[in-house]
Amino acid sequence: MSASDVVARSDVLLVGSLPYETAEEALREAASGLQGHVGWVPDGEVGPRVNWVGMLPAEVFPKNPDLEETMAPPEHELEQPDIEGDKTPVENLPGIWNWRVKEGRTPRFDDLAYGTYAIESYRALQRLREEGAVSPDIRFQLCLPAPHSAIDGFFEDPDQWPMLYDAYLEGIRGEIRKALEVIPADDLVIQWDAAWEFVDMAMGDRNYFAFWPKLSAEEKFQRHAEQLDNLWQGIPDETILGFHWCYGTWGGWPMTAMPDLDLCVRMSNEAKRRTGRRLDYVHMPVVRNPDESFFAPLEKLDVGDTKVFLGLVHHTDGVEGFRRRRDLARKYLKDFGIGSVCGYGRVDPGLLPEILRTHVEDAKEL
Questions:
Q1: CATH code for residues 3-364
Q2: CB atoms within 10 A of CB 202
Q3: pLDDT class of 256 with cuts at 50, 70, 90
Q4: Which of 204, 246, 263, 297 lies at a C-alpha separation of 20 to 30 Å from 183?
């Protein structure tokens, strides 16, 4: 089945993280729970990846001889802030785990680990296929942090960012090549996740971290859009390519206010324009109680036949809430797939069967 056919028949997207101990559990539960509605499933971003890019300062940066640590959390473990509790806007933090490039060094990232994890998880998927637990036509989804998400939150000197972006991009291309040594191109989905970019843009002229450059909202948008020029290169045509626009779950979702879909629509248009191959899908989160104006920016969406997945699934309010959000969205976009706002890596595993059932119930309402 061609990539376009797989995308067309997929009406549900799982963004990435799932609250399981192993990739095999995540793949089994996701594929069986959403059978008939998904064309690809992620491995849950289990183990060291549970804190998403937090895996990098915990596992990758300490092994890199070109880097030095300048600030670390207690016990060298990231702990989620309770912004759900105090509702105080986070602004101008000195950092959460800071690094620098050593003087006189040119950084390289020869082992970012993503390719190794992908191969291990794909082999688990193959075992599940052999057991008959997963349909052979469900692809493997590899989620990768976009360069600015991987670098901006951890490196305290913005003057070093350009060479770090170059090194990270070269490194991640190596991870993709490594994965493709085992995973057939036509059995793979690559999804770029952009979170710190959207946290930054959504704060307007304010900064989340004190060391971030002082830029206007529009300057931030243009800076983050520029990285899209390079994210399609090295990905085979047979591989499905998508983007997840993320408002972050660090301490609770969303990390910053999301008044409407304007930033997501604008960045989707940029992704389509800047991607020099087929762009298969984009994912945009949706707040639980949007009004009609929230979806109005979809009128300006210009992505051709790229599939849009809207994060309309909020498992806490059932089908009725979904129908209301669906009907508002359809005033501006007639055809779309669905998903949640983000991953489920930090929820109780016992809730996942019901969450997956909610996805199926909502998909039937499309």
A1: 3.20.20.210
A2: 20
A3: confident
A4: 246
